[in-house]
Design brief:
Chain lengths: 114, 112
């Protein structure tokens, strides 16, 4: 079990460019989460899929951010027209069903917008 | 909206000492409580969970939950330099999902 796999580990984009982050959840896990981690804001929930369906995107900035899960083996987070304030570590996580089950995190993608 | 606060922000303990980390939450409907640990360059990893009031011990780690006082704590006995990391308290309200609300974290440093 390789755990949750995120690619790339590091990404540098110019201001105004698009960034796409990839996540491969643990096989068999039905829930996939995206979080963002910064020094100032800490760990913030962005969005959540269950069985590939979007369930809760209450943490997603309404403009420029979108997430998809086209199949059970991968999810993407896309940021359009990136801004310096988007610089953060983006973490993908997965779990089995139920609030009492462990959520497993990937190592994250460090996005730097210059 | 759930608010999770941790204290202290940072903590230094000697090797072999006891580290105590605290967490308060705001939603009385909270049901599942987790402690996560994150080493530099890695994602957070679950250390232990506690779902019922009282103490839960796993090796050198003991979690304590008091839902009435909206408080959960983690105590690390015989701290080791390898315990040095960022520790998060995470709370889940929904029985159906693993959506977690995290505190801001406590940086633990164990000095040899």
């Amino acid at each position: 079990n390789a755990g949750v796999i995120q690619t790339p580990r590091h990404k540098v984009t110019g201001k105004g460019q698009e960034a796409t982050l990839w996540c491969e959840p643990i096989s068999g896990h039905s829930a996939v989460f995206w979080y963002r981690q910064t020094i100032v804001q800490g760990l913030e929930f962005l969005t959540y899929f269950r069985n590939q369906a979007p369930i809760d995107d209450s943490g997603m900035p309404k403009e420029r951010f979108s997430a998809q899960m086209p199949n059970q083996s991968h999810s993407t987070l896309k940021i359009q027209s990136t801004q310096p304030q988007d610089s953060a570590v983006y973490l993908c996580a997965s779990s089995s069903e139920g609030g009492n089950t462990e959520v497993f995190f990937g190592k994250g993608t460090r996005l730097t917008v210059v | 909206q759930q608010k999770v606060q941790q204290s202290p922000e940072s903590l230094i303990v000697p090797e072999g000492g006891m580290a105590s980390l605290n967490c308060t939450f705001s939603d009385r409907n909270s049901q599942y409580f987790w402690w996560y640990r994150q080493h530099s360059g890695e994602g957070p990893k679950a250390l232990m969970s506690i779902f019922s009031n009282g103490d839960k011990k796993e090796g050198r780690f003991t979690a304590h939950l008091n839902k009435a006082s909206l408080h959960v704590s983690l105590h690390i006995k015989d701290s080791q330099p390898s315990d040095s990391a960022l520790y998060f308290c995470a709370v889940s309200t929904n029985t159906n999902t693993g959506k977690l609300t995290f505190g801001d974290g406590t940086v633990l440093t164990v000095k040899p």
